[in-house]
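Review box. Two proteins, two foldings.
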Amino acid sequence: LKSILSAQFCFWECTMSSSGTVKTYNAHKGWGFIDCNGQDIFLNKKDLKGIIVEKGLNVTFNIAQTEKGRQANDVTVIMNPDEALYLGEIKSFNVSKGYGFINSEAFPGQDIFVLKTDLPDQQGPQGAQCKFKMVMSEKGPTAKDVGLLGKASQALYEMRQMGLTGASMDMMGGMGMMGGGMG
């Protein structure tokens, strides 16, 4: 009887929609936890459909039991769309024209326009993971307040530590660290 009740509880728990609050989330690593009635439920970026969550946001989700524990899937974030942060990848960026495009799972099949002024140090490395807000403009969906994530963020940090920024890299004609110094 005990195993039958356990099986019924697991079936209910794994198929019924649950709600909770984001307890932690690291956008650089792409995972965190949801607090669901005092229980920690693992949250992976692949289940967020291109949205980046922050501590305290309310979510609804289903719970799946995996070999590593309980994990949220089919996650819906409950928030004002004007305040949403999205996860994307820089598809292309033309330094001389000062603009490029971002892809995001939140907007499938749609390019998000981005100006260099909305990028850190006015640089948009192709293939870099990023977070951004989206607004509608005359050019269509446009990224604002773009931040780089993961390796691209670390590379930008290291360039800043060496005193290299987008403007100084442009002035050096792309010489970067190839020995064409200023001294």
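Next protein.
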Amino acid sequence: CLSQSLRKLRTMDTKGGLGLDDELDREEITIKSKDQKSFTVTKKAARISRLIRTTIDGDSNCNEIELYHIDGDIVKRIISYMDYHEKVRPREIEKPIKTNNMADLVDAFDAKFCNVDQEVMFQLLLAANYLDIKPLLLLMCAKVASLLKGKTPPEIRKTFRIRDDYTPEEEEEVRNEYKDLLS
């Protein structure tokens, strides 16, 4: 049976040889960014991405993946996230968010990781979505939520540089229409 053979390979370590799990731990894959920067990461760490996991599972000889939509600086950050979370399971983020302080919601690495300017924050969010890295996507969504928490609409517009397109009359109309939700 195939599963018995795999189990034997995993536990076999005669004469200092590597078992199957050890090989996967050490085997690397190259991730190439939109701007043609190359980064290496273990396949085990890269598997946190469902997109990369599916690619690796579909082609066992795959040793390079090109990410045509993601800049090198963002790929580099994501690789550091993968490397860290290969060893440390991401902390579950309590919902709804009860604080604006990310250090109260996640571990120190993740709090520092998401402490970036808005442009990088949204690029990480989009990359996490594209790569299908659920814990990173949830982290970046929590960061956005922490920036929204406790702010009025004008403060939110200012924080995210959103232009106010409503005239005072239109704004009053919306307030009246949704007064049950806004009170």
